Amino acid sequence: MKKQNFSMRFIIGMLSLVLLLSFTVFCGGKAVASETKLEKKYEVLLFQKFIIDPKLETDYPGVVSECEKSTISDLQAKNMFRKVERAGEGAVNDEQTLLVQQKLLTLRIVSGAARFWGGAFAGQSEIIVELKMTDAASGKIVHEKVLSTANNPFAAAWTFGGNDRTLPTDMGKIISEYIVSIMPAK
Fold this sequence. Notes:
The chain is built from seven helices and five strands. It is α/β, with parallel strands linked by helices. The protein has two domains: 1-29; 39-182, ABC-type transport auxiliary lipoprotein component (Rossmann fold). It is extended and about 75 Å long.
């Protein structure tokens, strides 16, 4: 009887420990700091040419354009701005315009072959982008931020690399959500 009681308490204790660890791992245990909003609301967002190391552009063709396209289309779908598009060649000095410069700092996307043969052991894919936002009228940088995203290698293996392939689109949506979060109401 005592042995059965000990076994039951041991099993309940281990399950409690697993639940506690799972909660800590999945919830991250981190508090998110609130971001400082911009001083004024902008009606027009113009995205300047994405800055990327030419070697990365060669190694990962189309990633930058996919990320940029995702950001712009997500912002357009929100209908918060009068205009959201890539910046043209002409000079812009409108006081309602925010120029957004994106610079790719880190890019690693695990290939399909590596994910197939190595699974989770092929590692994680990640993207890190630096944003600089400039008031078009004054030319003053009004906000800077580094944003990043990475996938879980086990989840990527489980989805046969699906998480790896969607990372540029996901990063575009993260950038879009961030810009919306720092834009004041009026």
